Amino acid sequence: MLAASGGVSGFSRNLHYTEIQLKSGGFVMSEQGGEPITKGADRARLRCLVIGAGMSGILSGINILSKNYKLVSIVEKADKIGGTWRENTYPGLTCDVPSHAYTYSFAANPEWTRALPPGAEIQAYFEGVVEHYGLKPYLAFSEEIVACQWRQREWLVRAKSGREWRADVVIAATGVLHHRRMPDIPGLEHFEGHCFHTSRWDHTVELADKRIGVIGNGSTGVQIISALAGEVARLSHFQRTPQWIMPVENPAFTEEQRAAFRTNPALMEMVRNDPTYVESVRRFTEAVANPDSPEMAEIEAVVAANLEEGVADPVLRDKLRPTYRAACKRLIFSPDYYQAIQRERTELVTESIERVEAGGIRTKDGKLHELDVIALATGFHADKFMRPMQVEGRNGATLERAWARSPRAYYSVSIPDFPNFFMLNGPNGPVGNFSLIDVAEKQWAYISHLLEALQAGRAKEISASQSALDEFDARRTEAARSTVFGSGCSSWYLDAEGVPATWPWSFQRFAEEMQSPRWEDFELLA
Ligand code: NAP
Hints:
The chain is an alpha/beta fold. The chain is built from 15 helices and 21 strands. It folds into 2 domains: 302 residues, FAD/NAD(P)-binding domain, CATH 3.50.50; 189 residues, 3-Layer(bba) Sandwich (FAD/NAD(P)-binding domain), CATH 3.50.50.
């Protein structure tokens, strides 16, 4: 299907994706998808173990099979695939990346119902991909990996249950935003209503007749307020720091459009590569890297106008106006937050929270906000990655020591003295308002060169050298300090020392650097 247009898109240029497309005929949700990949002839194949069955783990599994390496297992701590999209089911859950861009390059999906994909559709998409590409037999559910040890030139991987696996290569596809950040608000345990983190939404609680408090106004809190405003007895949004909001439209795809996507998949490729979207990614990353750029001035003008035009009451407008620069925190895209917060039975609370009591939240002005439900949209510990897993590499190296200051990895994918241990969406990778699927695919393309060298017998152990990591990280850190993320706000992008733990250059540069490894930066041990 899309193989016909393979090479047109920057997403589908890599040979291994083309191979997948040739074998599978491309992915669609309907029966038009063709045959899943099957295991090839048994030979001395690289044994690869994947940790995590979310977006990156599924991508890894498909690519490992397509290269005819041995996929030992995709080990998943939960009882379902999906990662973020399995865990988050809160009302209004939507990805703010366009649907056809938040899609594997080799598995276009004509069934997206909206320009921005709803969370449940994304989960269903990944389940369909797993089924289609024959990954099910490789999935080991409810197995939390507690230790990976490099022993006699192979990885010994152990789960909490005691189950063990051996592999030549470990791919850590464990995600970024999965360790819930619970707020340190006194009295939370005394609340007598329902209280849960947004990534553990309790769907048994009927909301319509309830007084609901949402703490936190990142992307999650804003989406929940937009979904619940006017739909519940009362809605209180507890804001500690205002957020800049970028307006966005989210039209539905009509049945006619979806039918056209089914019969002519090249249309999906066109939507995916919509020049307006591609250009917006370019402009956005330019703005992040260079806060004094015209691109940043443009973003600032748009979000400021959105606030001025979107909120009628000047007092409310002042409460919603941040004092830091746009995009310093992850920019929020919302079609309707300002409308939602101005709706009947909805209020913005900017007074600081003093404590939680049995009946609700008491703010520092002495007022008790009586509540039946408290939703904690307080985010995640983004610096944990695969930890608390114990990872022991070569020469006594441990992840605990390697990451004692903060998580660091050479180009996000490799850590010195952890041979054949590679990460997708690892530390210091690109973050922002673009597709992490695209990021993972580009990182996979890079890692695949390393796997090819192992399979070809060019080395038995590959990891970045310490000097290469140090040199890369010094350059990265220096550049990161002057990005907009480091311009004076708090956010999950910052490391323990307040430095943005992110890719600090343009997305184009990331795409170029991921095309092939600089071999001199790696230690290859035969
Ligand atoms: P977040 O952006 O980290 O926001 C956490 C919020 O909780 C902030 O408003 C923070 O306030 C507040 N908070 C934390 N502790 C608090 C306390 N003790 N008292 C009062 N307020 C407190 O978390 P998130 O909204 O879950 O989003 C995390 C990331 O997930 C996003 O940036 C995005 O990458 C991803 N996400 C993406 C989408 C999407 O559409 N693609 C949707 C949802 C989430 P301060 O600002 O004052 O610290």
